[in-house]
Write a structure and sequence with these properties.
The chain is an alpha/beta fold. It has helices spanning 40-50, 65-75, 139-152, 168-173, 181-188, 197-205, 244-257, 262-276; strands at 3-7, 11-17, 33-38, 54-62, 80-87, 93-99, 105-110, 130-134, 155-159, 174-180, 210-213, 219-223, 226-230. The chain has a nine-stranded mixed β-sheet with strand order 5-4-1-8-9-10-11-12-13, with helices on both faces. A four-stranded mixed β-sheet has the order 3-2-6-7. Helix 7 (244-257) runs antiparallel to helix 8. It is globular, with a radius of gyration of 18 Å. The structure holds alpha-D-ribofuranose.
């Protein structure tokens, strides 16, 4: 099996399904509320493992019940959690999520232990083919992951969501940098036409390649051979879009690690993301 090291956030998701989101000063009630495992990095690790990769996770949890639940949820998919730091006296990251009937989500993340993750990779991990770094753990950790990828000769995939200022060296070695259209607009300073958005991100960041996800419309990527659009795949039903981007990134990383070209990898990632919106929560119901 091809190896991936995923560096990123681990959270517990507190999910409320609501008819509409509360406005300022407003309270809404719901009888549909759940706790589930989440965190963009951890979701990506699970998606990569489900896509057949052997995955090791670098991240942080608190010394609390939530942290123990997150480690268990990752291990249940065979993700190696020896690189997950336990931070004493700090809570595990928590995401507060509302999901409306159209499947759209909005999220507030309490970083908790993710904000205390020390940059660097523990010794003893077998060298990976791909290092997948996700920015909810901050730029220093992602820059250190890029250095590690260069040292072991791994391909670096950077998911700059949420957008943070990464070092020029990290951006230059991203192959690809992956963002959604909102994040792309943040980076570029204004929304861009889907026909040129990936090329503009690649040029702006100097990344080796760039992938921009477009939700139901699929994704576009740009590399040395130009810009290519991959059409969206019709979802069987849209229940919850939470974590669809993470499924995309995890599957993309797994397929690149397995040796697929970018076009094939992006196609597989688009299909997996379309499937993911049919389940509630950021992770699939257990296979
Ligand atoms: O992308 C979805 C994820 O974002 C959730 O699982 C939540 O934890 C936040 O990190």
């Amino acid at each position: 099996m091809t190896r991936i090291v995923v560096v990123g956030a681990i959270n517990e998701d507190w999910v409320a399904s609501v008819r509409h989101r509360p406005g300022p000063g407003q309270t809404v009630v719901t009888d549909r509320f759940s706790l589930s495992p989440g965190g963009k990095g951890a979701n990506q690790a699970v998606a990569a493992a489900r896509a057949g990769a052997s995955v090791a996770m670098i991240g942080a949890v608190g010394d609390d019940d939530s942290g123990r639940r997150q480690l268990q949820a990752l291990s249940a998919y065979g993700v190696d959690v020896r690189g997950v730091q336990k931070i004493i006296g700090v809570t595990t990251g928590t995401a507060f999520i509302t999901v409306t009937g159209d499947g759209e989500n909005s999220i507030v993340v309490g970083l908790g232990a993710n904000g205390f993750l020390a940059p660097g990779v523990p010794s003893g991990l077998p060298d990976p083919a791909v290092v997948l770094a996700q920015t909810e753990v901050g730029p220093d950790v992602v820059n250190a992951a890029a250095t590690y990828a260069a040292e072991v000769g791994a391909r670096l995939v950077v998911n700059n969501g949420p957008v943070v200022p990464l070092s020029p060296a990290t951006l230059r070695s991203a192959d690809p940098i992956v963002v959604n259209a909102h994040e792309a607009a943040d980076i570029l300073g204004s929304p861009a036409d889907p026909a040129e958005i990936a090329a503009r991100i690649r040029k702006h960041t100097s990344a080796r390649s760039a992938v921009v996800t477009l939700g139901a419309d699929g994704a576009v990527f740009s590399d040395a051979s130009g810009e290519t659009a991959v059409a969206g795949v019709q979802a069987s039903q849209v229940v919850d879009t939470t974590g669809a981007g993470d499924t995309f990134v995890g599957v993309l990383g797994a397929r690149l690690a397995a040796g697929d070209g970018v076009r094939v990898a992006v196609r597989a990632a688009v299909a997996a993301a379309a499937e993911s919106v049919s389940w509630r929560g950021a992770r699939p119901p257990r296979d």
